[in-house]
């Protein structure tokens, strides 16, 4: 499916999963809006690079996803939103009794509340256009849990629940809302952790990946940002017009356990 003429907003998209999804959407013909909380020359350069590579209109708009008014302003500044990919997220690992309150508040705000604000602002634009797709990048942790990740697991479960509610509210319109639930994804951030983990456990790269990082991922392979982008594109096709209010796991079998 060509997404030519569609505008896609991807939150948290100047690196990692968000950037990978944005690139794939642009390759499919969509105009894309990149986003993060910084406003650096390199942020705008990323958008210019995507525009040059794909021949689409790519822009970068700064907005802090921890602040509801900036989340809504992102949609307003974009001016159009046919495809909304709620991807922004942060993580903190700690036992619950030691979990810093400010970290809890930030994770809930960025990982979950931001999707509420952006979706609320985007739906009127989708209704006006007569078509829309909301794709929430949740996590395997939106369907299952791990210890010491209380805020992240709570937020991602919340995103899955929000996905269902929005889908029901738009069920009789040409608008769908779904969540993609990745397992471990090979991003530059994950890649950078591998050498230190090799030293810590005195293991080879292969053993660290299979036995430490991908311990819970039965395939023993990372998902890729390109695969997540492809899944997002599929949800924008006519083939997925009756897929709404559900989750698609891209986790190498993690949630099958």
From TrEMBL:
<dbReference type="InterPro" id="IPR002347">
    <property type="entry name" value="SDR_fam"/>
</dbReference>
<keyword id="KW-0560">Oxidoreductase</keyword>
<dbReference type="InterPro" id="IPR050259">
    <property type="entry name" value="SDR"/>
</dbReference>
<dbReference type="InterPro" id="IPR011294">
    <property type="entry name" value="3-OHbutyrate_DH"/>
</dbReference>
<protein>
    <submittedName>
        <fullName>3-hydroxybutyrate dehydrogenase</fullName>
        <ecNumber>1.1.1.30</ecNumber>
    </submittedName>
</protein>
<dbReference type="InterPro" id="IPR036291">
    <property type="entry name" value="NAD(P)-bd_dom_sf"/>
</dbReference>
<dbReference type="GO" id="GO:0003858">
    <property type="term" value="F:3-hydroxybutyrate dehydrogenase activity"/>
</dbReference>
<dbReference type="Pfam" id="PF00106">
    <property type="entry name" value="adh_short"/>
</dbReference>
<dbReference type="InterPro" id="IPR020904">
    <property type="entry name" value="Sc_DH/Rdtase_CS"/>
</dbReference>
<comment type="similarity">
    <text>Belongs to the short-chain dehydrogenases/reductases (SDR) family.</text>
</comment>
